[in-house]
Write a structure and sequence with these properties.
By secondary structure, the chain is of the alpha+beta class. About 55% of the residues lie in helices and about 20% in strands. The longest helix is centred in the middle third of the chain and has 40 residues.
Length: about 400
C-alpha cells in the first residue's frame, strides 16, 4: 500500500497547488495543479482498486467457506501483496480444517466401534445420537435409570437376562453450554466372575465342614439306633435325625454339582429337532394338571452342548412347574431359528425381582435354594448365548434363549 499512499499524498499536494494558484490569480498554475491532481487521483484509484477487488474476492471465498480456491496475482505490487497474504491464510485454514475433519472422523469411528455404549444428549437431556453398542443395550429399565442420573452420577443397573451395566452421566462444554452424555459399560462378566468365585468358595467351605461333621454324626446316630432299636419312640426320633442329616448332605451335594459344572463342548445342533426329541421326557416332569407342548418352526443350526442344553430345559421346566403351582397350567417350549423359548402361565416375575433372579442364592419360592436358574445362567454363559427371563404384559413368563451360530 506504499504506492497508494504516495499517490494520495501527491493528489492532496496538487489540489493544494490548484487552490493556491486560484487565490494568486495564476491561471497556468491553477490548470497545471488541476491536471496534476487529476492524474494523481487516477493513479491512486488504480493503486487501490485491484487490492480492494482482491479483498472482496477473498471475502466471497470465506463467506462460502471455499478453502480450496486461491486468488491469482494481478501484476500490481500492492494487490499481489494482499493476494499472497490471503492465500497463506487460506492454506492455514484448509490445513486446520482437514486436521479437524480427520480427528472427527477418527473419533467417530472409535466411538462407533467402542464396546462401551455412548449416547450424546440434547441440551434438555434427551438422547440425540448413540453408537451401536448403546443401541444394543437400550431398554426401558436402562433409560429410566439414565433419566434418574445427575451430572457426574453413576449407577449399577441390572436390566435382566443376567446383564450388569455401569451407567455414568457426564458432560462437555459445547459453545458455552453444558452438553450431557451417557456412558454405559458392561460389567456382566466381571460381576458374574466375582459372584461365581464367591459362590464356589462358600460351597467348598460349607461342603468340607458339613460333610466332615455329618459323617461322625450319622455314624453315632446309627450306633444309637442299634442300641435302642427295641424302643420304638427313641428309634423313631433317631431315624428322623438320621434322615435330616442325610438331607443336609444332599443339600450340600446339590450345590457342589453346580460348582463342578463341566465346560461346554460345542457342536452344531438343530434346536428344533432337539426339543422334539426331549418333549416326551420333559412332559414327564409335569404333574397331570400342567400340560406341556412344543412348537418348532424355521430350524437353524446353533452351537451347543446337548448334555448341558438338556439340563437347561429340565431346570427351566421344573422352574415353570414350581411357578404354576397347583393351578391349571400350560408350558410351551418353542423353537424358531436360533431361539428357544420356554413359556408358562405361572405366577410371573415382578419387575423388582427381574434383575436378581440369576444371582446366587436368590429365589422367590420358599423353601428353595435358587439353584435352578443359577445353573441355567451358568450353562448359557458357557454357550455365550443371550438370554432373558421376564413376564410380559400378557401375563406369560418367557425364558428366551438365543444361541450362537456354529463356528
Amino acid at each position: 500500500m506504499h504506492r497508494s499512499k504516495l499517490y494520495f499524498t501527491a493528489a492532496l499536494a496538487a489540489l493544494g497547488a490548484t487552490v493556491y494558484g486560484g487565490l494568486a490569480g495564476s491561471a497556468a498554475f491553477t490548470a497545471g495543479g488541476g491536471a496534476a491532481a487529476l492524474l494523481a487521483l487516477i493513479l491512486f484509484y488504480r493503486a487501490t482498486a485491484k487490492p480492494m477487488r482482491a479483498i472482496r474476492s477473498g471475502m466471497d471465498l470465506l463467506r462460502s467457506q471455499d478453502f480450496a480456491s486461491r486468488l491469482r496475482r494481478v501484476g500490481q505490487a500492492d494487490a499481489d501483496e494482499v493476494v499472497a497474504l490471503f492465500n497463506r491464510i487460506m492454506d492455514s485454514m484448509k490445513s486446520e480444517r482437514l486436521k479437524n475433519e480427520e480427528q472427527n472422523a477418527f473419533l467417530g469411528k472409535l466411538v462407533e466401534a467402542s464396546p462401551m455404549g455412548v449416547a450424546v444428549c440434547r441440551l434438555d437431556g434427551s438422547i440425540e445420537d448413540a453408537n451401536p453398542s448403546f443401541r444394543s443395550l437400550e431398554s426401558e429399565v436402562l433409560l429410566n435409570a439414565l433419566a434418574a442420573l445427575e451430572d457426574g452420577g453413576h449407577a449399577i443397573v441390572r436390566p435382566g437376562g443376567g446383564q450388569v451395566l455401569r451407567c455414568s452421566r457426564m458432560y462437555f462444554m459445547d459453545r458455552g453450554f453444558r452438553r450431557p452424555f451417557f456412558l454405559v459399560e458392561r460389567l456382566t462378566d466381571e460381576i458374574v466372575r466375582a459372584e461365581t468365585d464367591m459362590f464356589k468358595k462358600i460351597v467348598r467351605t460349607m461342603g468340607h465342614e458339613v460333610n466332615n461333621t455329618l459323617g461322625g454324626v450319622v455314624s453315632v446316630i446309627e450306633t444309637l439306633g442299634e442300641i435302642h432299636r427295641r424302643d420304638e419312640d427313641v428309634a423313631e426320633v433317631l431315624g428322623a435325625c438320621r434322615n435330616s442329616c442325610l438331607a443336609l448332605g444332599e443339600f450340600v451335594r446339590s450345590y457342589s454339582a453346580v460348582v463342578k459344572l463341566p465346560e461346554a463342548v460345542l457342536e452344531s445342533v438343530d434346536p428344533g429337532a432337539f426339543v422334539a426329541r426331549a418333549a416326551n421326557f420333559l412332559s414327564q416332569l409335569c404333574p397331570p394338571h400342567i400340560r406341556l407342548t412344543t412348537e418348532v418352526a424355521d430350524p437353524a443350526p446353533v452351537s451347543a452342548d446337548t448334555t448341558l442344553l438338556e439340563r437347561v430345559l429340565v431346570n427351566a421346566v421344573k422352574n415353570s412347574v414350581e411357578s404354576i403351582g397347583k393351578a391349571e397350567g400350560h408350558i410351551i417350549i418353542r423353537s424358531a431359528g436360533r431361539v428357544i423359548e420356554i413359556i408358562d402361565n405361572g405366577a410371573g416375575i415382578s419387575p423388582e425381582n427381574a434383575s436378581r433372579i440369576f444371582t446366587p442364592f436368590f429365589s422367590t419360592k420358599q423353601p428353595d435354594r435358587g439353584l435352578g436358574l443359577m445353573l441355567i445362567a451358568d450353562i448359557l454363559r458357557k454357550h455365550k448365548a443371550d438370554f432373558i427371563l421376564a413376564t410380559g404384559d400378557d401375563g406369560l413368563t418367557r425364558l428366551r434363549i438365543e444361541f450362537q451360530r456354529p463356528g
